[in-house]
Specification:
The longest helix is centred in the C-terminal third of the chain and has 23 residues, at 204-226. With 229 residues, this protein is of the alpha/beta class. The strands form 2 sheets. It has a 5-stranded parallel β-sheet with strand order 2-6-1-7-8, sandwiched between helices. It has a 3-stranded antiparallel β-sheet with strand order 3-4-5, covered by helices on one side. α1 packs across α9 (204-226) and α2 packs across α4. It has one domain (2-218): P-loop containing nucleotide triphosphate hydrolases (Rossmann fold). The chain starts with a strand and ends with a helix. A hairpin with a 2-residue loop joins β4 (73-77) and β5 (80-81). It has helices at residues 13-24, 32-44, 52-61, 89-99, 102-119, 129-133, 147-160, 167-181, 204-226; strands at 2-7, 27-30, 64-68, 73-77, 80-81, 122-126, 139-144, 195-198.
């Protein structure tokens, strides 16, 4: 079974996807981490982010490997574990510049599909999982929350990690990413294409419960169709 969770930055989709995968005992694929890793690689090489060709060369030459378990996605770049390093505010700010490059997206989509083929059953989250990468997924979700709520969540995460950043900077970063992201979900927002969930006023436990109910409902329907009375 393939379950996709797309959604805006800070909507809680990464945490929800990880916890849902753990509950279902299947792998968790964090595709956003792949773009973050490319952004980190480009920052470390001091590449000009306004140069698409230079960014593409970084992506093409990046030795990027993911270890997808039921509760985590560990990311290795050129042999080094960068799972924590890719979460910095500097990387967050640079990731949107990487993700909007179509040549890089094609590389990452191909990589994600290869990983998916190896995993079989998994929960994957990102920006284009249900619309582009796995359009035939069994269950598709789109998660969102108010900009203020998402900014507050992200700000607290960064502060807990010792990152010195203001709430205003975080909010501006999310606002700029939204302008790119929402264009990708037009097909998913059509009636019946995906299940849309607003997490603004929900705890992560409530979000995961709702996602699990939808998945279980699908399983029950499929079981009933295979074994009609």
């Amino acid at each position: 079974m393939i379950i996709t969770i797309d959604g805006s930055a800070g909507s809680g989709k990464s945490t929800a996807a990880r916890k849902l995968a753990a509950r279902l005992e299947v792998a968790y694929l964090d595709t956003g981490a792949m773009y973050r890793a490319i952004a980190l690689d480009a920052l470390q090489q001091e590449v000009d982010f306004s140069d698409p060709d230079a960014l593409f060369q970084v992506a093409r030459n990046s030795e990027l490997n993911l270890d997808c378990g039921p509760t985590h996605t560990r990311v290795r770049l050129h042999g080094h574990d960068v799972s924590e390093a890719i979460r910095s505010m500097a990387v967050s700010g640079a990731t949107s510049q990487v993700a909007k490059q179509q040549s890089i997206r094609k590389l990452m989509i191909d990589h994600q599909r290869r990983i998916g083929a190896e995993l079989g059953s998994f929960v994957t989250e990102g920006r284009d999982q249900g619309s582009v990468v796995f359009p035939h997924a069994d269950v598709k979700f789109v998660m969102d929350a108010s900009l203020e709520r998402r900014a507050q969540r992200r700000y607290l995460e960064l502060a807990a990690e010792g990152e010195e950043v203001t709430l205003e900077v975080v909010m501006n970063n999310l606002r700029s990413r939204d302008q790119v992201d929402w264009k990708q979900w037009e097909s998913l927002l059509r009636p019946g294409a995906a299940i849309v969930l607003d997490s603004s006023d929900l705890s992560i436990a409530e979000v995961v419960d709702r996602l699990a109910v939808e998945v279980q409902s699908l399983v029950q329907r499929e079981t009933a169709s295979l074994h009609p009375r």
